[in-house]
Amino acid sequence: MGNFDDSIDTDVLVIGGGTAGVVAAIASARMGKRTILVEQNGFLGGTATAALVTPMMANHINRLPLNTGICEEINQRLERTGDGALASDGNSGWFNPEKLKFVLEDLVLEAGVECIYYSFVHEVLVDQGRVAGIVLHNKSGKLRINSRLTIDASGDADVAFKAGVPFESGNPFNEGKNQAMSMRFHMGQVDLPRVAAFIRSIGGYCGDYPFMHAASVWGHNLPLEPLLRKAVDDGILEMSDGDYFQFFSVPGRPGELAFNCPRITERVDGTNVFHLTDAAQRGRRIIARFERFLKAYIPGFEESYIVMTSQMVGVRESRRIVGSYTLSQNDVRQGAKFEDAIARSCYPIDVHSPNRGDEQKLDFGNLPEGQYHEIPYRCLVPMVMDSLLVAGRCISADFHAQSAIRIESNCRAFGEAAGTAAALCIDHGLEPRNLSGILLRKILYERGCNLL
Ligand SMILES: Cc1cc2nc3c(=O)[nH]c(=O)nc-3n(C[C@H](O)[C@H](O)[C@H](O)COP(=O)(O)OP(=O)(O)OC[C@H]3O[C@@H](n4cnc5c(N)ncnc54)[C@H](O)[C@@H]3O)c2cc1C
Questions:
Q1: Is residue 451 part of a domain?
Q2: Which residue ranges run through the membrane (predicted)?
Q3: Per residue in 359-381, is it b (16+ CB within 10 Å) or e — as a string?
């Protein structure tokens, strides 16, 4: 186990200050538990800030959000400052990633959460079948944190993995290949009205700031496709650059567009540092090509420049723990309901295929209009290992179900459930597997979550 430069005791330890982890920490601290939140970056938000993933995909029915609670509280804070916006279709998840860092930090500090940044999980301390704490590695050396309850919100299930919890990763048909990654970027000084007018002039949908959106995928005959094809013929882009091309405008950032590309389809294991390094390098090379393409081919981009490229490579799917219940694609497609539901979702199955060309035969698995499925508490509880809960995109779900539930608003809801469950376990002296998911659901409902 090694020597430690320091040691701390806490009630709840949350690993990963990202989409789910921040909300888990807020929920646990608000229930009076000493809560420590550990994050490898020097800021909060994870994929939503460091990987520039904005906006949140819509998850509402008849304009009513399915994820309320702390998720909506975050959205409303952003909206009040002009850095978030509610679209006319009812999606309250349009936001400025840079300002999200500030809002999350305010909420975390107001709740009394203690943050430790710039720290990475070095070792998981397992004692008689339960996670007893974590050893962190950082500039100060090695820090040991003893915890009564640990929440793994690392996205990749790093804690569960190191503790020996079984996991799955990748697709079922194709040698465990993970979903494609993306390396996102922003362009600035874009003449948004001219871009919107141009896309409308070629028959496309675009919307207006702050709700602009356009996309192209080879073979879908979207209006931008001929332009991308010409750029390939002209030697500006490579064929694979046009596999998936998409941008959104960003509230609070007039003149900017956020790109959900380039897509990376080879060497896409988000837990392999060589794959991540390769993806970051390839991603930036493609972004340099996109910059040339945009300035030369799309009216409105002439004076634009690259504002930033994402710090984190965007990883859609990696380890998924084997939990007390594994959500299946049938559950998603059939709108399954559970007594111990902790979140609701109507987002479709959405696999960004690791295989080039597959997007032409996409099966989105949409639920009928007005229908949703639920996600049970048991998906957050590892099948083996006590004193540990998991929140975020790495909860227990099969490959296709995960592609539907991984959206940010759901990950926040998993975080709120995990933080609340951790506090309840401590109050009642229970292990997570023995906590009643029905009681948890009732308490989440009383705290504002849409779970009636
Ligand atoms: C390219 C891309 C596009 C997407 N598009 C959308 C979209 O348009 N809308 C939408 O709603 N969702 C989208 N998603 C999905 C969604 O953004 C993610 O599934 C979700 O944000 C994941 O949340 P999380 O909390 O599980 O992980 P994260 O938000 O990534 O949080 C994990 C945190 O843990 C930290 N961490 C990891 N390992 C360690 C460690 N060992 N020690 C310390 N800290 C650690 C990380 O730095 C990070 O802050 C997209 C995802 C990607 C990658």
A1: no
A2: 12-29, 41-58
A3: beebeebebeeeebbbbbbbbbb
